[in-house]
Design a protein that fits this description.
Distance between the termini: 38 Å
Mean pLDDT: 73
Shape: globular
Number of strands: 2
Number of helices: 15
Oligomer: single chain
Structural class: mainly alpha
C-alpha cells in the first residue's frame, strides 16, 4: 500500500484544489457549508457533485430550500429530478470500472463491494498493470490519501472562500468549466468518437439556451452515453 500512498499524494494535490473550488462554488449557489462538506465526505465524486450543484442552481436550488423551509421543500423543489439524473449519468463510468476490478478483489460480494468504494478515476488508472493485471493495494493506498484531501479542500472552499468576488479573484471560478473540459478532452484522447462528442456539444449549446441547467446537463449526459453504443467493429477499424 506504500506505493499507492506515494501515487496518491500527487493525485490528492489536484483533488484538493478542485475541492476548494467545489466548496466555494456550492456556497455561492446557496448551499450551507456543512451540506457541501457532508456531500464531499459521502459522494466523493467531483463530476457528480459539480453537476448536481449546477443543476439545482438552475432549477431553484436545494441550498436555499434547506435553509428556508427544511428538507421537504428541497426534495420537491424545482430541478431535483434532472439534477439527480445528470449526477447519476456522470457516475455511470464507475459501473464498468468496478466490474473490471471485481475479479481482483478477494472475499464475498459484500467484502468486494466495500473494497469497490476505493474505485476512483486516478487510483483506478494508476493501479492498472501491463498484461491486464491490477494492483488493488495501490488503488487502496491512492484513494486513502485522496479522500481526506477532497473533504478538507471542500471545507476550506466552503468556509473561507464564500463570495463570488473571491472566486473570481483567486481563479477558482474557472476550475469548474476547466474540469469538465479536461474530462471531454481525455475522453477524445482515449477514444476519439467525434460524432458523440459533436452531439454532446450540440445538446449543451441548444438546451442551455432554452432549458434550466438541470435538464441541459441530463440531456448532454445522455448524448455522451451514445458513445457506448458505437459498434465494436467500427472502433476496431479506426487507426
Amino acid at each position: 500500500m506504500g506505493n499507492g500512498i506515494r501515487v496518491g499524494v500527487g493525485l490528492a494535490a489536484g483533488a484538493f484544489l478542485l475541492a476548494v473550488g467545489f466548496g466555494a462554488f456550492a456556497v455561492t449557489h446557496g448551499w450551507p457549508a456543512w451540506l457541501a462538506i457532508a456531500m464531499s465526505a459521502v459522494v466523493f465524486s467531483g463530476s457528480a457533485q459539480f453537476a448536481l450543484v449546477t443543476a439545482l442552481a438552475g432549477g431553484g436550488g436545494i441550498g436555499p430550500a434547506l435553509v428556508g423551509g427544511g428538507i421537504g421543500p428541497a426534495l420537491v423543489g424545482g430541478g431535483i429530478g434532472p439534477a439527480l439524473a445528470s449526477a447519476a449519468l456522470m457516475n455511470l463510468r464507475f459501473v464498468p470500472m468496478a466490474a473490471a476490478t471485481a475479479r481482483f478483489l478477494p472475499g464475498g460480494p459484500l467484502r468486494r463491494a466495500l473494497q469497490g468504494q476505493a474505485v476512483v478515476d486516478g487510483s483506478w488508472v494508476a493501479a492498472q498493470r501491463p498484461g491486464g493485471g491490477f494492483d488493488r493495494r495501490l488503488m487502496f493506498g491512492a484513494t486513502l490519501v485522496q479522500w481526506p484531501a477532497w473533504v478538507l479542500g471542500t471545507a476550506l472552499g466552503a468556509l473561507v472562500v464564500p463570495g463570488g468576488s473571491a472566486l473570481a479573484a483567486t481563479g477558482l471560478d474557472v476550475i469548474f468549466p476547466g474540469f469538465f473540459a479536461l474530462l471531454l478532452l481525455d475522453a477524445l484522447r482515449t477514444a476519439p468518437r467525434l460524432a458523440p462528442a459533436g452531439a454532446l456539444a450540440a445538446a449543451i449549446a441548444a438546451t442551455c439556451r432554452f432549458m434550466p441547467s438541470g435538464g441541459a446537463l441530463a440531456l448532454a449526459g445522455a448524448a455522451a452515453v451514445l458513445a457506448l453504443r458505437t459498434p465494436a467493429r467500427v472502433r476496431e477499424a479506426r487507426p
